[in-house]
């Protein structure tokens, strides 16, 4: 079942075209990632889905309704960047207040425990660390027991441990049946969490696939390094169509090629009764896929 | 309604956690009456004031001061901070409209102004025998007109300033000349005629005049009422036109 449908979304701010043409659908129960460099149009896209921006063109349906439909606010939890709380509001007051906005609020005590905010209930917002503010923000997005949660740069500002804890939490939320739209520029996060990804660049979707599909679609070389137990003739390796180059670094051999390179190399070695020690394969990552699609590293 | 009450209560708590603004809004106007009233000559009828006492005038001025504190000093700073920090932006993603938060805030400020005004009137009556308005309805009308005129200006300032800090600064810069014309330093009755004429056209000058007229039992003059309604209309319109949620 499709819960979000975005078709030919277009949005300009004055002369700047933030989103040129974005289309995708999000299915119920999945974690859908939106990936892209800064300024690619990710935030504008999720703001439009959240009903905070009015698109200049295209259509958006969320749970079959227009994003401007206020009844959607009961069913969609949103965590956006640059949204804060009053300095002197405590964590507990914020959670109780926001829980009162919704017809079927989640148990905020359980939420704070899962998010590691259990001992911060009496702390005013201004006294929270960046990571704690971020976790409170996630809690507020989930407090209404939403059907869809839209999370923009959810782990930015978190330390590695808190980031992993947050990933566990998100997987738990998904397991409870919530559909999640995740905007991120962390490849590790996208690879770990997302079922499918849309890569957005210059206001357009440049790729839409599973993380594995994006990586497999790469036309990049693979490299295999190993130390052979007996001398190997380069020609034996180069005879295989998958192998493009063979380099020698001291006692190590590096084979560069495409396709099922590992199988090609190991079968040559097996036929010649050579054992490969210290075998290493340099595999393409989502990072590589991202660089190839956008011409930029996501960390920029 | 439940949400509105909860929002108003939350805003009230947050307001009371800012001890300095809470003091200046809730207690300072009454304290001013106490301080001025304790000066013996201010309790003597004065020929310059047509037989009234200085303290008689300062009760009305203190009420104007309360409204100036709330509307010109506090409102722009708080509202602009809420926008700057993304409080309104976050709210816009929930079932509760940011407009409800603004209404809750105005309700809370209205409540604070009423409490402070009641305190000023009580202190004036009990300690210095300042006669409460015979025509209470006229006083309520003058109070509401002054509150609406100054709040329209305060919300307009909140709408156009880029940050909470700027809202605070602009509010302070406006506060002093506006309160000057309301007679905080020299009651308008003893101002030179030119200044009196100018004061009649400023929001707090007109407001103070309407309040003092009401305290002596008459309805606000047509001039004061028109000036205040004018401020509501002009700045209310501009505020609605220029207000941004994020």
UniProtKB/TrEMBL annotation, chain A:
Where in or outside the cell?
Answer: Cell membrane
Keyword Magnesium applies: no
Entry's InterPro entries? AAA+_ATPase, ABC_transporter-like_ATP-bd, ABC_transporter-like_CS, ABC_transporter_ATP-binding, P-loop_NTPase
Bilayer topology annotation: Peripheral membrane protein
Q: Which residues form the ABC transporter domain?
A: 4-227
Per the UniProt record, one Pfam family is: ABC_tran
Molecular-function GO terms, alphabetical: ATP binding
| Highest taxon in the source lineage | Bacteria
Q: Which UniProt keywords apply?
A: Antibiotic resistance, ATP-binding, Nucleotide-binding, Transport
What protein am I looking at?
ABC transporter ATP-binding protein
From TrEMBL, chain B:
Main localization of the protein? membrane
Sorted keywords for this record are: Antibiotic resistance, Cell membrane, Membrane, Transmembrane, Transmembrane helix, Transport
Claim: Transport is one of the keywords in the record: yes
Q: Which residues form the ABC transmembrane type-2 domain?
A: 20-246
**What topology does the record note for this protein and the membrane?**
Multi-pass membrane protein
Q: Where in the cell is it found?
A: Cell membrane; Membrane
Q: Which domain of life is it from?
A: Bacteria
Database matches in InterPro entries: ABC-2_transporter (IPR052902), ABC2_TM (IPR013525), ABC2_TM_bact-type (IPR047817), ABC_2_transport (IPR000412)
TM region positions: 20-39, 59-80, 101-124, 136-161, 168-186, 219-240
What protein family does this chain belong to?
Belongs to the ABC-2 integral membrane protein family.
| PANTHER family (UniProt xref) | DOXORUBICIN RESISTANCE ABC TRANSPORTER PERMEASE PROTEIN DRRC-RELATED (PTHR43027), TRANSPORT PERMEASE PROTEIN (PTHR43027:SF2)
- Report what the protein is called: Transport permease protein
């Amino acid at each position: 079942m499709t819960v979000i449908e975005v078709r030919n979304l277009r949005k300009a701010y004055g002369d700047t075209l933030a989103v040129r043409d974005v289309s995708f659908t999000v299915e119920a129960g999945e974690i859908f990632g939106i990936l892209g460099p800064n300024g690619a149009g990710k935030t504008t896209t999720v703001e439009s889905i959240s009903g905070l921006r009015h698109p200049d063109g295209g259509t958006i349906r969320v749970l079959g309704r227009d994003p401007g439909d206020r009844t959607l606010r009961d069913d969609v939890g949103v965590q956006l960047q640059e949204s804060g709380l009053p300095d002197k509001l405590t964590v507990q007051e914020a959670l109780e207040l926001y829980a009162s906005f919704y017809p079927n609020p989640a148990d905020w005590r359980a939420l704070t425990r899962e998010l590691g905010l259990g001992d911060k209930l009496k702390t005013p917002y201004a006294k929270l660390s960046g990571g704690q503010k971020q976790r409170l923000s996630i809690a507020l997005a989930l407090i209404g027991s939403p059907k869809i949660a839209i999370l923009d740069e959810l782990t930015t500002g978190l330390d590695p441990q808190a980031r992993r804890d947050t990933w566990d939490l998100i997987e738990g939320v998904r397991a409870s049946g919530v559909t999640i739209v995740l905007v991120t520029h962390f490849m590790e996060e996208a690879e770990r969490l997302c079922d499918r990804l849309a890569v957005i660049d210059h206001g357009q979707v440049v790729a839409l696939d599973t993380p594995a599909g994006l990586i497999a679609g790469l036309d990049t070389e693979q490299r295999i390094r190993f130390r052979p137990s007996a001398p190997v003739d380069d020609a034996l390796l180069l005879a295989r169509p998958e192998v493009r180059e063979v380099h020698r670094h001291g006692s190590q051999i590096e084979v560069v090629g495409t396709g099922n390179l590992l199988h090609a190399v190991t079968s040559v070695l097996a036929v010649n009764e050579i054992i490969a020690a210290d075998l290493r394969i340099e595999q393409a990552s989502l990072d590589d896929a991202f660089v190839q699609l956008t011409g930029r590293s996501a960390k920029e | 309604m439940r949400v509105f009450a909860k929002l108003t209560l939350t805003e009230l708590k947050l307001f009371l956690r800012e001890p300095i603004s809470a003091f200046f809004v809730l207690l300072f106007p009454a304290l001013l009456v106490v301080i001025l009233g304790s000066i013996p000559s201010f309790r003597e009828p004065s020929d310059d004031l047509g037989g009234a006492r200085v303290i008689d005038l300062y009760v009305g001025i203190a009420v104007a001061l309360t409204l100036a504190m709330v509307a010109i000093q506090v409102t722009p700073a708080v509202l602009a901070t809420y926008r700057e920090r993304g409080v309104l932006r976050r709210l816009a993603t929930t079932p509760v409209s940011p407009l409800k938060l603004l209404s809750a805030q105005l309700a809370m400020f209205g409540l604070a102004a009423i409490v402070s005004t009641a305190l000023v009137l009580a202190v004036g009556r009990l300690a210095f025998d300042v006669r409460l308005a015979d025509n209470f309805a006229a006083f309520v009308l003058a109070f509401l007109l002054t509150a609406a005129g100054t709040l329209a200006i305060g919300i307009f300032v909140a709408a156009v300033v880029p940050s909470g800090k700027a809202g605070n600064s602009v509010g302070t810069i406006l506060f002093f000349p506006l309160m000057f014309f309301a007679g905080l330093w020299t009651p308008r009755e003893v101002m030179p005629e030119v200044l009196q004429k100018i004061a009649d056209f400023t929001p707090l000058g007109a407001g103070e005049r309407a309040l003092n007229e009401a305290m002596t039992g008459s309805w606000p003059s047509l001039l004061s009422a028109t000036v205040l309604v004018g401020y509501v209309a002009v700045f209310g319109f501009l505020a609605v036109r220029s207000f941004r949620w994020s």
